[in-house]
Amino acid sequence: MTGLATVGAFVGVLLVGLVVLVRKPADARSVLRWSALAITVLVAAVLTPFTVDDSGAAAGYLLGVPVVAAILPVLAQRVGRLTLVADLVAALVITGWGLLLGLGIGGAFLPAVILLIASAAGTWAPRPSTTG
Fold first, then answer.
1. pLDDT tens digit string along 41-76?
2. Interval 27-38: pLDDT, tens
3. Domain ranges of the chain
4. What's the start-to-end Cα distance of the chain, in Å?
5. What are phi and psi of 27, to 5 degrees?
6. Between the CA of residue 92 and those of 44, 59, 83, 97, 131, what are the distances in Å?
């Protein structure tokens, strides 16, 4: 089950990356943040039955930590402040949690980190000229 969730997450990240590269949305960072959240929530949903069977009540925090971390950049974007910090903190938390749970369910959450890092990297990207 974990392998299927991981492969699905990687396919989702590749599709989002392809869409962002081809369509070039005006606010690509927003698309990346929302996509990272959606992929993280979907991975948690797919892994819920397996995790509840395996870990019981601990499934709440095992699956909840990455989801809460993925919500942070979206909330920071809504507030309009500290989006770069929120992207990096969320990527760090999900990576740490994924490595901590690496032999179990943690690896399935790692693909979403790619989107959060891309969103943070987009902060430093040169902005296209509006003249021309």
1. 999 999 999 888 888 888 888 899 999 999 999 999
2. 888 888 999 999
3. 2-121
4. 51
5. -120, 75
6. 18, 21, 14, 8, 37
DSSP summary character for residue 27: T
Inter-residue contact 116 to 32 (CB < 8 Å): yes
Rounded-to-integer distance, Cα 132 and Cα 122, Å: 22
**Single-letter amino acid code for the residue at 4:** L
Query: Which residues, in sequence order, are CB contacts of 24 under 8 Å at separation 6+?
Result: none
Q: Which of 78, 84, 94, 87 is nearest to 33 (CA)?
A: 87
Q: How many residues does the chain have?
A: 132
Spatial CA neighbour of 70 closest among 98, 105, 102, 100: 98
